[in-house]
Amino acid sequence: MRRWIAILVFLIAFWNPAGAAIIKLYLKDGTYQLAREYQVNGDRVKYFSTDREEWEEIPLDMVDLKKTETEVKQREEQIREENKANADEDKAERQAKREARSVPADPGAYLVNGASIQPLKPGEAKLVNNKRRTILKVLSPIPMVSGKETLELDAPHSQVIVKDPSPEFYLRLSEEERFGIVKMGEHNGHRVVEKVTVVPVTKEIVEEPVIVPTYHSQAGDGLYKIWPQNPLEPGEYAVVEYTDGKINIQVWDFAVVPGK
């Protein structure tokens, strides 16, 4: 939208109703004449005045021809650059739409892997304390957590290896939930998705994931593209979907291993 507003302003400023470019024919006294076109004939400059809609002549030594020609060339270059930028933007938009259409209809997370879309397998998260490991049912909140626990994935490393430190993902939601990317820690050879605490008396559940700053854009109904604001450091990560305070987090894990 902003692009079209900018184009409209440019057209209003530099184009007349007949569609011809308006030229500022600069004079050496600091003023200028508005012209649709001009030509140098010997010691005279003939120009078509847009104010009076007729051809007029003026002595060449009264005209700052260098300033006039410089502005004309700058405007032509600006038009070329804007046309190229608009063409590049249109091409990027078409490519983005084609990419989004290739995302499967099933809810889940998908890694943009070059020209292909790679489905990610959801991880099986478990609540862990000193006494037990409880499997967390996907999108099925656990009603009670005892004290301090951690939400973990088995094994120290993800099977999904990403070499690009700025990976892009699509997330197709089954329902409207919060989502993002988290950096996982380590605990007894397992990956920690987040720490979980139950507040005494109120029994309020406090979740403490390490959220990575991300950008996201909506690519369709329930479909979002998400990517980190800054390159990710090597380590274990996950795309997550969740509701605050319900421990219903759904996890799609991956590891950033540059150059592997």
Computed CA radius of gyration, to the nearest angstrom: 31 Å
Query: What percentage of residues falls in helices of 4 or more residues?
Result: 10-25%
Order of helices and strands: HEEEEHEEEEEEEEEEEEEEEE
Please identify the structural class as seen in this structure.
alpha+beta
Largest sheet: 6 strands, antiparallel
Strand content: 35-45%
Q: Please tell me what the overall shape is.
A: elongated
Query: In the residues, how many domains can be counted?
Result: 2
How would you classify the quaternary structure?
A: single chain
Query: How confident overall, as mean pLDDT?
Result: 82
Low-confidence stretches: 1-19, 135-140
Question: Strand tally, please?
Answer: 20
Q: Span between N and C termini?
A: 41 Å
> Helix count, per DSSP?
2
Structure description:
There is one protein chain. The protein has helices spanning 2-14, 65-101; strands at 23-26, 32-41, 44-49, 54-59, 108-113, 116-119, 126-128, 133-135, 148-153, 161-162, 169-172, 178-183, 185-187, 190-198, 205-209, 211-212, 214-220, 223-228, 235-242, 250-256. The chain has 260 residues and is of the alpha+beta class. The protein has two domains: 2-101, no CATH class; 108-256, no CATH class. Strands 7, 8, 9, 13, 14 and 15 form a six-stranded antiparallel β-sheet that branches. A five-stranded antiparallel β-sheet has the order 6-5-11-18-17, covered by helices on one side. It has a five-stranded mixed β-sheet with strand order 10-20-19-12-16, with no helix packed on it. It is elongated. The protein starts with a helix and ends with a strand.
